[in-house]
């Protein structure tokens, strides 16, 4: 076992025959400022973790040392770096993913005795008993990322949409109830609804249509007609067109009257 400045250096192997492997540096995590998500005495800190290493693979490997409570990544050590790493990834329909870079990892065990067992490991073996790698790398990893990013599964997408809409409806119902009660939220804001002193109007299609017609009519009455020269010219041309149209309609009516009369003196 190699140690370097307080870190235990272990190779990370993807196959039993691997000779040239990246090294991962491990030690017990401790900082001056307490972090409830990384409790002292139960958190293992890892540096130089390759980009292709996943949370599930670390759970599988270090699960041999004891039950694991959580596995988190970050771009660099720091209390707020884990939040930045996962920022935007949990939002509905978000395509944001953590960067594909070397990273640090925090493994939180349920028992403090698991830290010693984890530090005693001679290597991090990312393969099963038959020698098969438990993670995807190279072309296999790129193919999986392409399918997950650009090829949608209709069933999963439908379930995701249904889940999002159910949450949206729940929030809307809560907002409507808050508007009825008029109670202030945690920040002191009061949601104002149509059940208050000034009820407003009911936002139905018919009501909105009537309001839009009223606004259009009001704008039309305010419009200045025959004020500019081009308006006078266009008005005259429009009158001529209407007169010609009326003349043709009258000619057609007279023709129909002549055809329909029974008495024909000539």
From TrEMBL:
One of its GO terms (cellular component) is CURI complex. Signal peptide: none annotated. One of its GO terms (molecular function) is nucleic acid binding. This is Ribosomal RNA-processing protein 7 C-terminal domain-containing protein. GO terms for biological process: ribosomal small subunit assembly; rRNA processing. InterPro entries: Nucleotide-bd_a/b_plait_sf (IPR012677), RBD_domain_sf (IPR035979), RRP7 (IPR040446), RRP7_C (IPR024326), Rrp7A_RRM (IPR034890). PANTHER family: RIBOSOMAL RNA PROCESSING PROTEIN 7-RELATED, RIBOSOMAL RNA-PROCESSING PROTEIN 7 HOMOLOG A-RELATED. It comes from the Eukaryota. Gene3D superfamilies: 3.30.70.330, 6.10.250.1770. Residues 152-266 form the Ribosomal RNA-processing protein 7 C-terminal domain. Belongs to the RRP7 family. It comes from Drosophila erecta (Fruit fly).
């Amino acid at each position: 076992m190699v140690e370097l400045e307080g870190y235990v250096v272990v190779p990370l192997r993807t196959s039993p025959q691997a000779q040239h492997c990246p090294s991962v540096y491990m030690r017990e995590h401790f900082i001056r400022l307490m972090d409830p998500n990384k409790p002292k005495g139960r958190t293992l800190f890892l540096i130089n973790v390759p980009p292709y290493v996943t949370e599930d693979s670390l759970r599988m490997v270090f699960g041999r040392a004891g039950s694991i409570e959580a596995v988190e990544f970050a771009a660099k050590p720091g209390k707020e770096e884990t939040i930045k790493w996962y920022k935007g990834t949990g939002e509905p329909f978000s395509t944001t993913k953590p960067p594909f870079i070397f990273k640090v990892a925090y493994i939180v065990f349920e028992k403090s005795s698991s830290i010693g067992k984890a530090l005693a490991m001679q290597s991090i073996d990312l393969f099963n008993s038959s020698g098969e790698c438990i993670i995807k790398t190279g072309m296999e990893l790129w193919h999986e990322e392409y399918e997950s990013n650009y090829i949608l599964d209709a069933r999963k997408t439908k379930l995701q949409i249904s889940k999002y809409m159910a949450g949206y409806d729940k929030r809307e119902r809560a907002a409507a109830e808050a508007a009825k009660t008029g109670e202030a939220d945690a920040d002191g804001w009061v949601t104002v609804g149509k059940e208050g002193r000034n009820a407003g109007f009911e936002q139905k299609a018919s009501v909105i249509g009537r309001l839009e017609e009223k606004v259009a009519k009001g704008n039309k009455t305010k419009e200045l007609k025959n004020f500019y020269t081009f308006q006078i010219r266009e008005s005259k041309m429009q009158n001529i067109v209407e007169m010609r149209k009326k003349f043709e309609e009258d000619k057609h009516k007279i023709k129909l009257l002549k055809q329909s009369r029974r008495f024909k003196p000539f």
